[in-house]
């Protein structure tokens, strides 16, 4: 297991118990979905697993090592291996900085180096963006472009695990499909572990081979996506499926990609 949690609990500073007794396990190279209604703790869980919320109870490990220990001993190393694309692309860029500066920031702070000549341009090419966007400010991009930019920024440090929190929910329907395709493409090419949060089961069905269902801070069920969608054990999951079906599952979206060929981007080396 590359990521594993047992009896994981977390209470926000304001006193909200957001996670309790969460069990979670992800194998290297897997695409895993986390679904659940608003407020069920999805963002809290991925932020915690990315090392952004210290002070949990129970156990959460990355590559067999307790996340809290990694963070205390080498936070930069941990963060460069675990990258999160935030729920809102517009809020995740500093509006005062040109995108070239924002894109280079993880390199500067985590890898302690400047970009090589052409490196940022290549990175943008990987997410289907033109290099001329580098000199712009965040408000000068569309939502879809900004979401691609957020993906590029997460990938610039070659993470072993990429977390995407609601990667499409802030986007126009026409752009949603493009970003989903891009995520699938990235995962196929990099073979990285991809953990996707969505309240929309159709998104998870399209991207993920395994899914965890979260409700009020606990996992209510988990399993292979196809099997779980076909015969959900809990009424809560059934309700989520019904909600998703009315929107997109019946648009011919085939759940679960399997056996996708894993190619490797030149020069890309997954950590750990
Ligand atoms: N910074 C915070 N301070 C206090 N409480 C918080 C904070 N962030 C989240 N919470 C609370 O923790 C619980 C879980 O929130 P979380 O953001 O993880 O849910 P979510 O499943 O991501 O929801 P959504 O689908 O709306 O994004 C909620 O009750 C929320 O109000
Ligand atoms: Mg959230």
From TrEMBL:
Sorted UniProt keywords: ATP-binding, Nucleotide-binding, Transport
InterPro entries: AAA+_ATPase (IPR003593), ABC_transp_ATP-bind (IPR050319), ABC_transporter-like_ATP-bd (IPR003439), ABC_transporter-like_CS (IPR017871), P-loop_NTPase (IPR027417)
CDD domains: ABC_NikE_OppD_transporters
Keyword Lipid metabolism set for record: no
One Pfam family per UniProt: ABC_tran
Gene Ontology molecular function: ATP binding; ATP hydrolysis activity
Gene Ontology biological process terms in this record: transmembrane transport
UniProt feature coiled coil, ranges: none
Listed PROSITE patterns: ABC_TRANSPORTER_1, ABC_TRANSPORTER_2
Family per similarity comment: Belongs to the ABC transporter superfamily.
Annotated protein name in UniProt: Peptide/nickel transport system ATP-binding protein
């Amino acid at each position: 297991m590359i990521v594993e949690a047992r009896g994981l609990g977390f209470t926000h500073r304001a006193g909200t118990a957001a996670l309790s007794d969460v069990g979670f396990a992800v194998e290297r190279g897997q695409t895993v979905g986390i679904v659940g209604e608003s407020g069920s703790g999805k963002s809290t869980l991925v932020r915690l697993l990315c090392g952004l919320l210290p002070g949990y109870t129970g156990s959460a490990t990355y590559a067999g090592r307790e996340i809290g220990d990694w963070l205390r001993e080498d936070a930069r190393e941990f963060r460069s291996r675990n990258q999160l694309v935030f729920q809102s692309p517009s809020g995740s860029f500093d509006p005062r900085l040109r995108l070239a500066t924002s894109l280079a920031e993880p390199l500067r702070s985590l890898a302690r180096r400047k970009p090589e000549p052409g490196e940022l341009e290549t990175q943008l090419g990987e997410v289907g963006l033109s290099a001329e966007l580098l000199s712009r400010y965040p408000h000068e991009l569309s939502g879809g472009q900004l979401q691609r930019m957020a993906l590029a920024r997460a990938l610039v440090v070659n993470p072993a695990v990429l977390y995407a929190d609601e990667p499409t929910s802030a986007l126009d329907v026409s752009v949603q499909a493009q970003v989903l395709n891009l995520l699938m493409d990235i995962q196929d090419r990099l073979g990285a572990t991809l953990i996707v949060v969505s309240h929309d089961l159709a998104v998870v069905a399209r991207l993920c081979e395994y899914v965890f269902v979260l409700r009020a801070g606990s996992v209510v069920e988990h399993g292979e996506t196809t099997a779980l969608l076909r015969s959900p054990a809990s009424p809560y999951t059934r309700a989520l499926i019904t909600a998703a079906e009315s929107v997109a599952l019946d648009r011919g979206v085939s759940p679960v990609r399997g056996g996708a060929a894993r190619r490797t981007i030149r020069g890309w080396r997954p950590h750990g």
